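call fold target=CBM2 domain-containing protein
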Amino acid sequence: MRLVSSRTRKQRLAIGAVAVLGLGGLSVIQALPASAAAGCSVTYTVTNSWNNGFQGEIAIRNVGDAWTSWNLTFSYANGQRVTQGWGGRFTQSGTQVTVANESWNGAVPNGGSVTPGFLGSHTGTNTNPTAFAVNGVACTGSPVTSNPTTGGPTSTPTTRPPTTPPRPRRRRTRRRRRPDRAPRTRTWVAVAT
């Protein structure tokens, strides 16, 4: 016969309870709502133009759940180049332009907007871009909701909790001060040397 300490039994019961609760919690994952709705609308405007240059602004409106940061992407069709920008960090690789938020304008609530501006150059026709995306979601003017896959079980587990009731806790009794003793006090004395 093997002796098992009460501590080991308690640990085993705790591990079993956590396992049962963990399996039960997996069925809750399926009941989670769809992920956050993302959506945006973009208005691209050329505010000024001259020979081979132009000034523009991009009004980005959030029509979905709030953003803590944003990253706009679009492409030029006719070799336009962004030469300077403000209200966002502009980078360009070939025809692809990326505008990331500044530290002060990353948070955009539903219905809020940001409007970065820029200077650009072109040779030939200065055609406006037509496809924009914020944080990887195409700007269609409507929110887009994605439904995440959980990878969890499709049915509720049938494991039942242990039937052994928990042992009642021992009550701790407070040590009472005996009435015949005076309370202790500490006295500090400063001694000059």
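return ok
Residues 37-143 form a domain with the Immunoglobulin-like fold (CATH 2.60.40.290). The longest strand covers residues 40-50.
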